Amino acid sequence: MTRVRKKSFIIMSVIGPLLIASLWAIPIWLATRDTEQRTIDVVDESGYFENKLSGNGSLNFNYVTKDITSAKEKLSENNNYGLLYIPKIDIDKPRGITFFSEKNPSIDVIGNLERSLRNNIEEIKLIRSSIDKETLESLKTDLSINTINITDSGEKTGSAGVATIIGYIAAIMIYFFIFIYGIQILRGVIEEKTSRIIEIIVSSVRPFQLMMGKIIGVGAVGLTQFLIWIFLGFGITTLVSSYFNIDQQGPVPVTAGMEEAQDEGAELVTEIFNSLESINIPLLLTAFLFYFLAAYLLYGSLFAAVGSAVDNDTDAQQFQLPITIPLIFSLIVLSAILREPDGSFAFWLSMIPLTSPVIMMMRIPFGVPLWEIALSMSLLIVGFIFTTWLASRIYRIGILMHGAKVNYRILGKWLFMKN
Protein backbone atom coordinates (compact mmCIF):
# COMPACT_ATOMS: atom_id res chain seq x y z
CA MET A 1 0.00 0.00 0.00
CA THR A 2 2.91 2.32 0.72
CA ARG A 3 4.31 1.81 -2.78
CA VAL A 4 0.92 2.21 -4.51
CA ARG A 5 0.24 5.50 -2.73
CA LYS A 6 3.49 7.04 -3.98
CA LYS A 7 3.17 9.76 -6.61
CA SER A 8 5.88 8.07 -8.67
CA PHE A 9 3.76 4.90 -8.93
CA ILE A 10 0.67 6.82 -10.02
CA ILE A 11 2.61 8.89 -12.56
CA MET A 12 4.38 5.88 -14.08
CA SER A 13 1.16 3.87 -14.20
CA VAL A 14 -0.45 6.58 -16.32
CA ILE A 15 2.56 7.71 -18.32
CA GLY A 16 4.08 4.22 -18.74
CA PRO A 17 1.98 3.21 -21.78
CA LEU A 18 2.68 6.59 -23.37
CA LEU A 19 6.42 6.16 -22.82
CA ILE A 20 6.31 2.69 -24.38
CA ALA A 21 4.38 4.06 -27.37
CA SER A 22 6.89 6.90 -27.73
CA LEU A 23 9.73 4.37 -28.08
CA TRP A 24 8.10 3.36 -31.38
CA ALA A 25 6.69 6.72 -32.46
CA ILE A 26 9.67 9.02 -31.86
CA PRO A 27 12.13 7.16 -34.15
CA ILE A 28 9.50 7.15 -36.91
CA TRP A 29 8.89 10.86 -36.42
CA LEU A 30 12.60 11.63 -36.44
CA ALA A 31 13.02 9.61 -39.64
CA THR A 32 10.21 11.41 -41.46
CA ARG A 33 10.62 14.99 -40.25
CA ASP A 34 12.13 17.64 -42.49
CA THR A 35 15.91 17.84 -42.26
CA GLU A 36 18.35 20.61 -42.97
CA GLN A 37 18.98 21.40 -46.64
CA ARG A 38 22.55 20.54 -47.66
CA THR A 39 24.36 21.57 -50.84
CA ILE A 40 27.02 19.32 -52.33
CA ASP A 41 29.44 20.43 -55.03
CA VAL A 42 30.00 17.87 -57.80
CA VAL A 43 33.08 17.59 -60.00
CA ASP A 44 32.23 15.04 -62.72
CA GLU A 45 35.21 14.27 -64.94
CA SER A 46 33.46 11.19 -66.35
CA GLY A 47 30.55 13.09 -67.87
CA TYR A 48 28.15 10.28 -66.97
CA PHE A 49 26.33 12.04 -64.13
CA GLU A 50 25.96 15.65 -65.20
CA ASN A 51 22.58 16.98 -63.94
CA LYS A 52 21.45 13.43 -63.24
CA LEU A 53 22.01 13.10 -59.50
CA SER A 54 18.92 13.49 -57.36
CA GLY A 55 18.75 13.93 -53.60
CA ASN A 56 16.16 12.81 -51.08
CA GLY A 57 14.64 16.26 -50.58
CA SER A 58 17.36 17.45 -48.25
CA LEU A 59 20.28 17.35 -50.72
CA ASN A 60 21.01 19.85 -53.48
CA PHE A 61 23.74 19.27 -56.07
CA ASN A 62 25.85 22.08 -57.51
CA TYR A 63 27.89 21.04 -60.55
CA VAL A 64 31.20 22.90 -60.88
CA THR A 65 33.61 22.92 -63.83
CA LYS A 66 36.74 23.59 -61.80
CA ASP A 67 39.47 21.03 -61.36
CA ILE A 68 39.40 19.01 -58.17
CA THR A 69 42.22 20.99 -56.52
CA SER A 70 40.46 24.34 -56.98
CA ALA A 71 37.12 22.84 -55.93
CA LYS A 72 38.62 21.60 -52.67
CA GLU A 73 40.10 25.02 -51.94
CA LYS A 74 36.71 26.68 -52.49
CA LEU A 75 34.86 24.16 -50.31
CA SER A 76 35.54 26.00 -47.04
CA GLU A 77 34.68 29.37 -48.59
CA ASN A 78 31.21 28.55 -49.93
CA ASN A 79 30.10 26.74 -46.71
CA ASN A 80 28.69 23.79 -48.67
CA TYR A 81 28.30 20.41 -47.00
CA GLY A 82 30.87 18.61 -49.12
CA LEU A 83 32.41 17.89 -52.50
CA LEU A 84 31.69 14.79 -54.60
CA TYR A 85 34.53 13.95 -56.97
CA ILE A 86 33.83 11.55 -59.86
CA PRO A 87 36.96 10.78 -61.91
CA LYS A 88 36.99 9.15 -65.33
CA ILE A 89 35.72 5.70 -64.48
CA ASP A 90 35.10 2.33 -66.08
CA ILE A 91 31.33 2.03 -65.99
CA ASP A 92 31.61 -1.73 -65.39
CA LYS A 93 34.02 -1.30 -62.45
CA PRO A 94 33.55 2.22 -61.05
CA ARG A 95 36.45 3.05 -58.73
CA GLY A 96 37.89 6.21 -57.23
CA ILE A 97 34.68 8.15 -56.48
CA THR A 98 35.45 10.29 -53.41
CA PHE A 99 33.51 12.56 -51.08
CA PHE A 100 35.42 15.46 -49.48
CA SER A 101 34.09 17.30 -46.43
CA GLU A 102 35.38 19.22 -43.44
CA LYS A 103 33.79 16.74 -41.02
CA ASN A 104 32.51 13.19 -41.15
CA PRO A 105 29.32 13.05 -43.24
CA SER A 106 26.20 11.31 -41.94
CA ILE A 107 25.46 7.76 -43.03
CA ASP A 108 22.20 9.01 -44.57
CA VAL A 109 24.07 11.38 -46.91
CA ILE A 110 26.59 8.75 -48.02
CA GLY A 111 23.83 6.20 -48.51
CA ASN A 112 21.83 8.62 -50.65
CA LEU A 113 24.89 9.43 -52.80
CA GLU A 114 25.69 5.75 -53.33
CA ARG A 115 22.08 5.02 -54.23
CA SER A 116 21.89 7.85 -56.76
CA LEU A 117 25.19 6.90 -58.40
CA ARG A 118 24.22 3.24 -58.52
CA ASN A 119 20.85 3.98 -60.15
CA ASN A 120 22.47 6.13 -62.82
CA ILE A 121 25.13 3.53 -63.59
CA GLU A 122 22.47 0.84 -63.91
CA GLU A 123 20.49 3.07 -66.27
CA ILE A 124 23.57 3.59 -68.45
CA LYS A 125 24.15 -0.17 -68.59
CA LEU A 126 20.52 -0.75 -69.57
CA ILE A 127 20.80 1.74 -72.44
CA ARG A 128 23.98 0.03 -73.63
CA SER A 129 22.15 -3.31 -73.55
CA SER A 130 19.23 -1.85 -75.53
CA ILE A 131 16.86 -2.48 -72.62
CA ASP A 132 14.34 0.20 -71.78
CA LYS A 133 14.25 1.02 -68.05
CA GLU A 134 10.48 1.37 -68.04
CA THR A 135 10.15 -2.09 -69.56
CA LEU A 136 12.45 -3.53 -66.90
CA GLU A 137 10.46 -1.83 -64.13
CA SER A 138 7.22 -3.19 -65.55
CA LEU A 139 8.58 -6.73 -65.20
CA LYS A 140 8.92 -6.30 -61.44
CA THR A 141 5.87 -7.49 -59.52
CA ASP A 142 4.77 -6.73 -55.99
CA LEU A 143 3.50 -9.87 -54.30
CA SER A 144 2.08 -10.52 -50.87
CA ILE A 145 0.61 -13.73 -49.48
CA ASN A 146 -2.58 -13.61 -47.46
CA THR A 147 -2.60 -15.79 -44.34
CA ILE A 148 -5.80 -17.56 -43.29
CA ASN A 149 -5.89 -19.65 -40.12
CA ILE A 150 -8.33 -22.57 -40.17
CA THR A 151 -9.81 -23.05 -36.70
CA ASP A 152 -12.73 -24.92 -35.19
CA SER A 153 -14.76 -21.69 -35.26
CA GLY A 154 -13.99 -21.02 -38.93
CA GLU A 155 -11.41 -19.24 -41.02
CA LYS A 156 -9.69 -16.16 -39.60
CA THR A 157 -7.25 -13.69 -41.12
CA GLY A 158 -3.75 -14.21 -39.77
CA SER A 159 -0.49 -12.32 -39.93
CA ALA A 160 2.98 -13.54 -39.04
CA GLY A 161 4.09 -9.93 -38.61
CA VAL A 162 1.38 -9.12 -36.06
CA ALA A 163 2.03 -12.37 -34.19
CA THR A 164 5.74 -11.57 -34.09
CA ILE A 165 5.18 -8.07 -32.71
CA ILE A 166 2.74 -9.27 -30.04
CA GLY A 167 5.05 -12.14 -29.08
CA TYR A 168 8.06 -9.85 -28.75
CA ILE A 169 6.14 -7.27 -26.70
CA ALA A 170 4.74 -9.91 -24.32
CA ALA A 171 8.11 -11.66 -23.88
CA ILE A 172 10.03 -8.44 -23.29
CA MET A 173 7.41 -7.16 -20.84
CA ILE A 174 7.71 -10.40 -18.83
CA TYR A 175 11.49 -10.01 -18.87
CA PHE A 176 11.47 -6.41 -17.65
CA PHE A 177 8.70 -6.95 -15.08
CA ILE A 178 10.68 -9.76 -13.45
CA PHE A 179 13.82 -7.66 -13.38
CA ILE A 180 12.17 -4.48 -12.10
CA TYR A 181 10.14 -6.03 -9.32
CA GLY A 182 12.74 -8.67 -8.48
CA ILE A 183 15.31 -5.94 -7.85
CA GLN A 184 12.74 -4.13 -5.69
CA ILE A 185 12.47 -7.23 -3.49
CA LEU A 186 16.25 -7.55 -3.24
CA ARG A 187 16.75 -3.91 -2.26
CA GLY A 188 13.79 -3.99 0.13
CA VAL A 189 15.22 -6.97 1.98
CA ILE A 190 18.70 -5.38 2.13
CA GLU A 191 17.21 -2.12 3.44
CA GLU A 192 15.27 -3.87 6.21
CA LYS A 193 18.26 -6.03 7.10
CA THR A 194 20.78 -3.16 7.34
CA SER A 195 18.38 -0.96 9.32
CA ARG A 196 17.89 -3.83 11.84
CA ILE A 197 14.10 -3.52 11.46
CA ILE A 198 14.10 -7.16 10.45
CA GLU A 199 15.21 -8.25 13.92
CA ILE A 200 12.07 -6.75 15.43
CA ILE A 201 9.77 -8.17 12.74
CA VAL A 202 11.04 -11.76 13.01
CA SER A 203 10.08 -11.75 16.68
CA SER A 204 6.44 -11.72 15.55
CA VAL A 205 6.49 -13.79 12.34
CA ARG A 206 8.53 -16.65 10.95
CA PRO A 207 11.26 -15.78 8.37
CA PHE A 208 9.41 -17.74 5.68
CA GLN A 209 6.22 -15.74 6.30
CA LEU A 210 8.23 -12.52 6.16
CA MET A 211 9.86 -13.51 2.86
CA MET A 212 6.54 -14.46 1.25
CA GLY A 213 4.94 -11.25 2.53
CA LYS A 214 7.66 -9.21 0.86
CA ILE A 215 7.33 -11.16 -2.41
CA ILE A 216 3.52 -11.06 -2.51
CA GLY A 217 3.39 -7.37 -1.52
CA VAL A 218 5.75 -6.22 -4.27
CA GLY A 219 4.05 -8.61 -6.72
CA ALA A 220 0.67 -7.03 -5.93
CA VAL A 221 2.17 -3.65 -6.81
CA GLY A 222 3.29 -5.00 -10.18
CA LEU A 223 -0.08 -6.65 -10.82
CA THR A 224 -1.90 -3.40 -10.02
CA GLN A 225 0.29 -1.49 -12.45
CA PHE A 226 -0.18 -4.17 -15.10
CA LEU A 227 -3.98 -4.03 -14.80
CA ILE A 228 -3.91 -0.22 -15.08
CA TRP A 229 -1.89 -0.53 -18.27
CA ILE A 230 -4.34 -3.13 -19.64
CA PHE A 231 -7.31 -0.78 -19.13
CA LEU A 232 -5.41 2.18 -20.61
CA GLY A 233 -4.31 0.06 -23.58
CA PHE A 234 -7.89 -1.11 -24.16
CA GLY A 235 -9.06 2.51 -24.05
CA ILE A 236 -6.42 3.62 -26.57
CA THR A 237 -7.31 0.69 -28.85
CA THR A 238 -11.00 1.61 -28.68
CA LEU A 239 -10.23 5.24 -29.57
CA VAL A 240 -8.11 4.19 -32.57
CA SER A 241 -10.83 1.81 -33.74
CA SER A 242 -13.49 4.52 -33.40
CA TYR A 243 -11.35 7.10 -35.19
CA PHE A 244 -10.93 4.90 -38.26
CA ASN A 245 -14.51 3.60 -37.96
CA ILE A 246 -13.40 -0.04 -38.07
CA ASP A 247 -15.85 -2.93 -38.13
CA GLN A 248 -15.80 -6.46 -39.42
CA GLN A 249 -16.50 -5.35 -42.97
CA GLY A 250 -13.47 -3.04 -43.02
CA PRO A 251 -13.00 0.71 -42.92
CA VAL A 252 -15.99 2.90 -43.73
CA PRO A 253 -15.22 6.42 -45.00
CA VAL A 254 -16.14 9.02 -42.44
CA THR A 255 -16.87 11.52 -45.17
CA ALA A 256 -17.24 11.23 -48.91
CA GLY A 257 -14.20 13.43 -49.39
CA MET A 258 -11.79 11.47 -47.22
CA GLU A 259 -8.28 11.93 -48.51
CA GLU A 260 -6.27 9.07 -49.98
CA ALA A 261 -3.71 9.14 -47.17
CA GLN A 262 -6.43 8.67 -44.56
CA ASP A 263 -7.90 5.78 -46.61
CA GLU A 264 -4.52 4.05 -46.66
CA GLY A 265 -4.10 4.59 -42.93
CA ALA A 266 -7.57 3.20 -42.24
CA GLU A 267 -6.88 0.15 -44.41
CA LEU A 268 -3.61 -0.52 -42.59
CA VAL A 269 -5.22 -0.27 -39.17
CA THR A 270 -8.12 -2.46 -40.34
CA GLU A 271 -5.67 -5.08 -41.60
CA ILE A 272 -3.94 -5.12 -38.22
CA PHE A 273 -7.22 -5.44 -36.33
CA ASN A 274 -8.40 -8.22 -38.64
CA SER A 275 -5.12 -10.05 -38.09
CA LEU A 276 -5.75 -9.96 -34.36
CA GLU A 277 -8.76 -12.23 -34.93
CA SER A 278 -6.41 -15.19 -35.46
CA ILE A 279 -4.84 -14.61 -32.02
CA ASN A 280 -6.70 -15.86 -28.97
CA ILE A 281 -6.55 -12.59 -27.01
CA PRO A 282 -8.26 -13.94 -23.84
CA LEU A 283 -5.81 -16.86 -23.77
CA LEU A 284 -2.91 -14.50 -24.40
CA LEU A 285 -3.89 -12.18 -21.54
CA THR A 286 -4.61 -15.08 -19.19
CA ALA A 287 -1.26 -16.70 -20.01
CA PHE A 288 0.55 -13.38 -19.61
CA LEU A 289 -1.03 -12.84 -16.21
CA PHE A 290 -0.14 -16.37 -15.08
CA TYR A 291 3.43 -16.34 -16.38
CA PHE A 292 4.01 -12.88 -14.97
CA LEU A 293 2.86 -13.91 -11.49
CA ALA A 294 4.45 -17.38 -11.48
CA ALA A 295 7.76 -16.20 -12.94
CA TYR A 296 7.82 -13.27 -10.57
CA LEU A 297 7.22 -15.57 -7.57
CA LEU A 298 9.91 -17.97 -8.82
CA TYR A 299 12.56 -15.33 -9.42
CA GLY A 300 11.33 -13.11 -6.56
CA SER A 301 12.11 -15.81 -4.01
CA LEU A 302 15.64 -16.11 -5.40
CA PHE A 303 16.14 -12.33 -5.29
CA ALA A 304 14.86 -12.31 -1.70
CA ALA A 305 17.37 -15.03 -0.79
CA VAL A 306 20.19 -12.99 -2.32
CA GLY A 307 19.07 -9.87 -0.46
CA SER A 308 19.04 -11.74 2.85
CA ALA A 309 22.57 -13.06 2.33
CA VAL A 310 24.31 -9.71 1.72
CA ASP A 311 24.52 -6.30 3.38
CA ASN A 312 24.66 -4.01 0.30
CA ASP A 313 23.96 -3.85 -3.44
CA THR A 314 27.63 -4.28 -4.35
CA ASP A 315 27.88 -7.68 -2.66
CA ALA A 316 24.57 -8.71 -4.22
CA GLN A 317 25.85 -8.32 -7.79
CA GLN A 318 27.95 -11.50 -7.68
CA PHE A 319 24.86 -13.55 -6.83
CA GLN A 320 22.50 -11.81 -9.28
CA LEU A 321 24.25 -13.04 -12.44
CA PRO A 322 23.49 -16.77 -12.01
CA ILE A 323 19.85 -15.88 -11.33
CA THR A 324 19.48 -13.63 -14.37
CA ILE A 325 21.40 -15.77 -16.89
CA PRO A 326 18.31 -17.88 -17.82
CA LEU A 327 16.29 -14.69 -18.42
CA ILE A 328 19.03 -13.12 -20.53
CA PHE A 329 19.45 -16.37 -22.47
CA SER A 330 15.69 -16.47 -23.14
CA LEU A 331 15.81 -12.97 -24.59
CA ILE A 332 18.83 -13.77 -26.78
CA VAL A 333 17.22 -16.87 -28.37
CA LEU A 334 13.91 -15.15 -29.20
CA SER A 335 15.01 -14.76 -32.83
CA ALA A 336 15.69 -18.51 -33.04
CA ILE A 337 12.28 -19.24 -31.48
CA LEU A 338 10.70 -16.90 -34.03
CA ARG A 339 12.16 -18.87 -36.93
CA GLU A 340 10.64 -22.13 -35.68
CA PRO A 341 8.07 -21.52 -32.90
CA ASP A 342 6.86 -25.15 -33.09
CA GLY A 343 10.32 -26.73 -33.11
CA SER A 344 11.81 -28.97 -30.43
CA PHE A 345 14.19 -26.24 -29.25
CA ALA A 346 11.28 -23.87 -28.62
CA PHE A 347 9.24 -26.65 -27.00
CA TRP A 348 11.84 -27.65 -24.41
CA LEU A 349 12.73 -24.06 -23.52
CA SER A 350 9.05 -23.36 -22.96
CA MET A 351 8.92 -26.28 -20.51
CA ILE A 352 11.95 -25.35 -18.37
CA PRO A 353 10.59 -23.16 -15.51
CA LEU A 354 13.48 -20.66 -15.62
CA THR A 355 12.98 -19.92 -19.33
CA SER A 356 9.34 -20.83 -20.01
CA PRO A 357 7.74 -17.44 -19.11
CA VAL A 358 9.61 -15.53 -21.84
CA ILE A 359 9.71 -18.31 -24.45
CA MET A 360 6.06 -19.37 -24.11
CA MET A 361 4.84 -15.78 -24.46
CA MET A 362 6.76 -15.62 -27.74
CA ARG A 363 5.11 -18.84 -28.97
CA ILE A 364 1.48 -18.33 -27.93
CA PRO A 365 0.58 -15.75 -30.66
CA PHE A 366 1.60 -18.34 -33.28
CA GLY A 367 -0.73 -20.96 -31.79
CA VAL A 368 0.32 -23.47 -29.15
CA PRO A 369 -1.66 -26.62 -28.21
CA LEU A 370 -3.43 -26.25 -24.89
CA TRP A 371 -1.73 -29.35 -23.47
CA GLU A 372 1.67 -27.73 -23.99
CA ILE A 373 0.55 -24.57 -22.19
CA ALA A 374 -0.94 -26.65 -19.34
CA LEU A 375 2.25 -28.71 -19.01
CA SER A 376 4.42 -25.61 -19.06
CA MET A 377 2.30 -23.94 -16.37
CA SER A 378 2.37 -27.07 -14.20
CA LEU A 379 6.16 -27.32 -14.42
CA LEU A 380 6.45 -23.61 -13.63
CA ILE A 381 4.36 -24.10 -10.46
CA VAL A 382 6.61 -27.00 -9.44
CA GLY A 383 9.65 -24.84 -10.15
CA PHE A 384 8.22 -22.03 -8.03
CA ILE A 385 7.61 -24.38 -5.10
CA PHE A 386 11.15 -25.74 -5.35
CA THR A 387 12.87 -22.33 -5.63
CA THR A 388 10.75 -20.96 -2.77
CA TRP A 389 11.84 -23.86 -0.56
CA LEU A 390 15.44 -23.35 -1.66
CA ALA A 391 15.31 -19.60 -1.03
CA SER A 392 13.67 -20.03 2.38
CA ARG A 393 16.60 -22.20 3.54
CA ILE A 394 18.97 -19.32 2.79
CA TYR A 395 16.62 -16.56 3.92
CA ARG A 396 15.99 -17.95 7.41
CA ILE A 397 19.70 -17.77 8.26
CA GLY A 398 20.97 -14.93 6.08
CA ILE A 399 18.37 -12.43 7.28
CA LEU A 400 19.98 -12.32 10.75
CA MET A 401 23.61 -12.42 9.59
CA HIS A 402 25.53 -9.12 9.57
CA GLY A 403 29.05 -8.27 8.46
CA ALA A 404 29.92 -11.76 7.22
CA LYS A 405 31.34 -12.16 3.73
CA VAL A 406 29.13 -14.73 2.06
CA ASN A 407 30.20 -16.91 -0.86
CA TYR A 408 28.66 -19.86 -2.68
CA ARG A 409 30.23 -22.39 -0.30
CA ILE A 410 28.59 -20.69 2.68
CA LEU A 411 25.24 -20.58 0.86
CA GLY A 412 25.58 -24.31 0.27
CA LYS A 413 26.07 -24.90 3.99
CA TRP A 414 22.98 -22.82 4.80
CA LEU A 415 20.88 -24.97 2.46
CA PHE A 416 21.58 -28.13 4.46
CA MET A 417 21.78 -26.56 7.90
CA LYS A 418 19.18 -27.90 10.32
CA ASN A 419 16.73 -25.60 12.08
Word description of this protein:
This protein is α/β, with parallel strands linked by helices and 419 residues long. The protein folds into two domains: 99 residues, Periplasmic binding protein-like II (D-Maltodextrin-Binding Protein, domain 2, 3-Layer(aba) Sandwich); 216 residues, no CATH class. The protein has 16 helices and eight strands. The strands form three sheets. The protein has a four-stranded mixed sheet, with helices on one face. A hairpin with a 2-residue loop joins strand 5 and strand 6.
Shape: elongated
**What kind of oligomer do you see?**
single chain
Structural class: alpha/beta
For the CA atoms, what is the radius of gyration?
30 Å
Largest sheet strand order: 2-1-3-4
What's the story with the biggest beta sheet? 4 strands, mixed
Q: Which consecutive residue ranges, at least 5 long each, have pLDDT under 50? A: 246-266
Strand content: 5-15%
The number of helical elements comes to: 16
Distance between the termini: 33 Å
Order of helices and strands: HHEEHEEHHEEHHHEEHHHHHHHH
Mean pLDDT: 75
Q: What portion of residues is helical?
A: 55-70%
Could you tell me the number of beta strands?
A: 8
Number of structural units classed as domains:
2
